[in-house]
Amino acid sequence: MTPAVRAEIVVDLDAIRHNVRALRELTGVPSMTVVKADGYGHGMVEVARAAREAGSEWIGVATIDEALALRAAGDTGPLLCWLTVPGDDWAAAIDAGVDVTAYSVAELGAIAATGRRARVQLKVDTGLSRGGATAQEWPDVVARAVQGERDGSWTITGIWSHLAASDEPAHPANDAQQEAFERALEQAADLSPEVRHLANSAAGILRPSSRYDLVRFGLASYGLDPAPGETPDLGLVPAMTAHASLALTKPIHAGDGVSYGHTWVADTDTTVGLVPLGYGDGVPRHASNAAHVLVDGKQRAMRGRVCMDQFVVDLGGDRPEPGSDVVLFGPGDHGEPTAQDWAEAAGTISYEIVTRIGGRMTRRYVGTSAR
């Protein structure tokens, strides 16, 4: 296809629906589709709607603002948020029927101070050393949670944690964290949460014992591999394709340098093409001289440094017309690189590739009932 705009992201909502259904069938337990960070760059509202249509019981976001935006867009199902700072509007989230997450006695106090009966989930830190109550703090958090249930401040709807190394199935942290989670659940025996959840995408696929009552699927919902080299083929379909229009082509000669710093110098006469995207649009600068794109049916190597607004590719003597379609990455069905290919070229993870891409690019949805 020839994009009608300078550059665009195309999101296939049918792929999202397919992935959500496939993952739910694999695990046999309810799923939470995580749509934080604007749906990992795919569009938070649209992905949440597609996931609900595919049967995802829960939606997960990081912040209260994200949760309220989903409610404003019409989402009414179970919705969890988990990252707050002092001064956040707990009352607005509670009034919107959002499940909020508490890490500490102080946060439980802030929730109680709203005077509203809340839906609260408790997060325990089992070894990621990020959010959540430590093992030392956990008994006090549980005691305050039990007190709040008795006095009508809240209902505890969930107890959960997050794994540090689920993409490495043999890593000893996985067993250690699951054992710590089991101990935390035993200490919370006076609570009866609706859901206990530990597994993210990689663990949900690779570690059945970690599924409990719910699996939080983030990256896999978007059709990307959460544990490259470890994940079996589940038939997941990448939902994002990033396109641009080729701005121009030109011949260069052997010895000509390309882009800032002349980090690439042509060793023979060739042609190059200008792609009107750069790090201002989320194209990683670390992909310089490493990533490839698809132009005119062939993968073309990026040459020279990625600039703020543009980068250059080697066309190897070909002269496709300006306006020709450039595919940065997509599902890979037509010979184009994938987000994983770009991640490897840039020395990062596919999460970052799809979440960062955007900037001045437009976003278009395809698939049944795309709106």
UniProtKB/TrEMBL annotation:
Q: Name one GO molecular function term.
A: alanine racemase activity
Keywords annotated in UniProt: Isomerase, Pyridoxal phosphate
Catalyses which reaction(s): L-alanine = D-alanine
Q: Which InterPro entries match?
A: Ala_racemase (IPR000821), Ala_racemase/Decarboxylase_C (IPR009006), Ala_racemase_C (IPR011079), Ala_racemase_N (IPR001608), Ala_racemase_pyridoxalP-BS (IPR020622), PLP-binding_barrel (IPR029066)
Every Alanine racemase C-terminal domain range: 239-366
Q: Which Pfam families does the annotation name?
A: Ala_racemase_C (PF00842), Ala_racemase_N (PF01168)
Its biological function? Catalyzes the interconversion of L-alanine and D-alanine. May also act on other amino acids.
UniProt cross-references to NCBIfam families, sorted A to Z: alr
Q: Which protein is depicted?
A: Alanine racemase
Which organism is this protein's natural source?
Nocardioides mangrovi
UniProt lists the gene as alr
